[in-house]
Amino acid sequence: MSRPVFADLAGQQRVIDTLCAEVDRGNPTHAWLVTGPPGSGRTTAARAFAAALQCTNTPAGCGECENCKLVLASSHPDVSFVSTDKFEYQIADVRHLITRAQESASTGRWRIIIIEDADRMSERSTNVLLKAIEEPPAKMIWILCAPSPADVLVTIRSRCRAVNLSVPSTSDVADLLVRRDGLDPQQALFAARVSQSHIGVARLLARDEQARIQREKVVTLPLRTTTLPQAMAAAAEISKLATERAESITGTDLQKKTEQLRHANGLGPEETIPPGLRSQFKALEEDAKRFARRASFDALDRTLTDLTTFFRDVLSLQLGTGIELINEHLREKLEAYSRGQSKEKSLAQLDAINQTRSRLAANVNQLMALEALMTRLLPNPGRR
User: Phi then psi for 362, rounded to 5 degrees?
Assistant: First the structure.
């Protein structure tokens, strides 16, 4: 039985079967917690489920009716997609959602609210949401997305039906990229492998040469960093790239929103902002700063994830696991590197990266954290 809305969920047949059965039952559970590691398709699953619930055809999830198209385009009036540019949702954000949840569906069968990154809710924010999930209005469905059940307070997850997505296989992701995006099979397979089956990252790497070049620079960094001055320079380069990427995204977004706000208030591009409106424009700037911090953190975290693959491959070679390397195209260089240090050293390097990711999440000084990391990633003294 074809359900086109679920076509982009690579290798998740068990989850698809669960969601389809719930749609066909006609009276779905009112709260869901969709979990899975980055790239597994949490938001894709939530979106497809919402489309199937609103679908007017049989079997539900046709992808062709007006409701399906609107949900998949994030434009359905009764399906809200909620995300945050901040490090965590604010209580005011959650209260706004609760108010929205009280509204009756206008054109669809259900009012659905999908909360991306539900793990970014503080305990106080989650407690505000709890009451709404415990006693939802009729025809109201909550779908929360998070990396794992442990990332959400037990009081919330105990009131949600759990759906756990697994990491899709490399071949499943490659097949999806070929089928959906028309990519060359070899290029798709390479992107799927080096992204560690992260569908979004794989698609970016397969289509964007600059992204591939940037990743290659990061992954080969240990091969080019053997002295303390080089380590300091590498840390500065990583920090600069992340900041520039964040500022580029933020600047474009701020300009667009500023233009929209000017237009809504009848102001020309060069016209002076009246005193009564300055607080609104100031709020835009503050939001942009918060978004920049979030974007910078996300860019750094992705960079450190890519760096991890180098030492993961080194350790795999040292242990003789025989499994395929993530960076298979660098095998000869990885083998040479692995022969120059102990397994204990490789483990220590992996630990150093994980510790740095945790420190950055705790908002420590970015450059100092990276300098400390690159120092710990230097090879053993005397190694060439």
Answer: -85, 5
